[in-house]
Specification:
Keywords: Transferase. It comes from Sphingobacterium detergens. Residues 9-133 form the Glycosyltransferase 2-like domain. InterPro entries: Glyco_trans_2-like, Nucleotide-diphossugar_trans. This is Glycosyl transferase family 2. It is a single chain. With 304 residues, this protein is α/β, with parallel strands linked by helices. The chain has a single domain, classed as Alpha-Beta Complex (Spore Coat Polysaccharide Biosynthesis Protein SpsA, Chain A), CATH 3.90.550. It has 11 helices and 10 strands. It has helices spanning 15-26, 46-59, 79-94, 110-120, 161-164, 171-175, 180-186, 194-202, 209-219, 270-282, 287-303; strands at residues 7-11, 35-40, 67-72, 96-101, 104-106, 127-131, 146-149, 157-160, 223-227, 232-234. The chain has an 8-stranded mixed β-sheet, sandwiched between helices. A two-stranded antiparallel ribbon has the order 5-10. Helix 2 (46-59) links the parallel strand 2 and strand 3. Helix 1 packs parallel to helix 2 (46-59). The protein is globular.
Length: 304
């Protein structure tokens, strides 16, 4: 393995989540040899000031990484602008990057996995991202240890400058020439609401960097490496986040061992595609389960 990729962590106003994210990352193999960048966004309003200040106290503690570089925003950028700006600057400087947000718990083997994959596929132009998250699909153990899938995932990921340079923040430029068949394939044969996210972004209903990154990857016929056993767990699906909803559908068991096998063929894995497509189609579960999740969302919204 060549030089280790820096980690870029985005934090905002969730001190408990930030603490857990940093503690898990610190337990990783290679943590003490890794440069950590932390971008701390400023409070959007007076209600967030205290929590933002607490987060900033936490990130300034003596964490045991090779080096910690903190960027404190003096105004609120919002997640999308913060991510786009931060990733662009750091990946241009280092050539490769691992990206986390303040609601992601990592396996102790996450940095090992990311760095192995970044090193292995650095010259393969079609490979545009390494996903840390692995879907909780049925018959999980029947999948290869790692495999390629088309969707770019935002729950812990890595990339190279050569891939990120294809990121286009202008969603209209990205999708204006999408055919009906491309929309169908972009949405995994209509099983996931990715095209709905595109439409909501175009109308200003959401402001997602992630759907623009996926569209950028898709337009280049890019591929994303996924682990069978997830290297990241989203701990923000408790309703506390800016862009999260309270549900357990995507909960996983973190990998308890390192990854050794990587695909030699640069092509989307059919078995992985079908497993994730089935997950998308059935993730909402029965009407009873949907009702339970709806009530949880309402309860969390009320608590706020």
């Amino acid at each position: 393995m060549n030089s280790l990729a820096p980690v870029l962590l985005f934090v905002y106003n969730r001190p408990a989540h930030t603490l857990k994210t940093l503690a898990a990352l610190e337990r990783n193999k290679y943590a003490d040899q890794t440069i950590l960048y932390i971008y701390s966004d400023a409070a959007k309003d007076e209600r967030a000031i205290e929590a933002v200040e607490e987060v900033r106290r936490i990130i300034k503690k003596p964490w045991y990484f090779k080096q910690v570089k903190i960027v404190e925003r003096d105004k609120n950028w919002g997640l999308a602008a913060n991510v786009i700006d931060g990733v662009t600057k750091v990946v241009q400087e280092h050539g490769q990057i691992i990206v986390l947000e303040d609601d992601l718990e990592t396996s102790a083997f996450a940095l090992d996995y990311f760095n192995k994959a970044l090193d292995r596929y650095k010259e393969d132009e079609q490979v545009m991202q390494i996903s840390g998250y692995g879907y909780p699909v049925k018959n999980l153990n029947e999948l290869p240890e790692t495999f390629f899938f088309r969707v770019a995932n935002s729950w812990g990921w890595a990339t190279w400058d050569r891939a990120w340079q294809h990121f286009n923040p202008n969603i209209d430029e990205l999708v204006s020439d999408f055919s009906e068949e491309q929309i169908h394939q972009f949405s995994i044969e209509g099983k996931e609401n990715f095209w709905k996210q595109v439409q909501e972004l175009r109308t200003g209903k959401i402001n997602s960097w992630a759907i623009r990154w996926y569209a950028s990857v898709f337009k280049k016929n890019g591929l994303v490496l996924y682990p069978r056993n997830s290297m990241t767990q989203n701990i923000g699906n408790d309703g506390s986040g800016t862009h999260t909803a309270a549900e357990s559908t995507y909960q996983v068991t973190l990998a308890d061992h390192p990854v050794h096998a990587f695909p030699t063929e640069i092509a989307e894995n059919v078995q992985g595609y079908e497993a994730i497509k089935y997950f998308y189609a059935h993730r909402k579960g029965s009407l009873f389960n949907r009702g339970i999740r709806f009530l949880k969302k309402k309860i969390n919204k009320f608590k706020k």
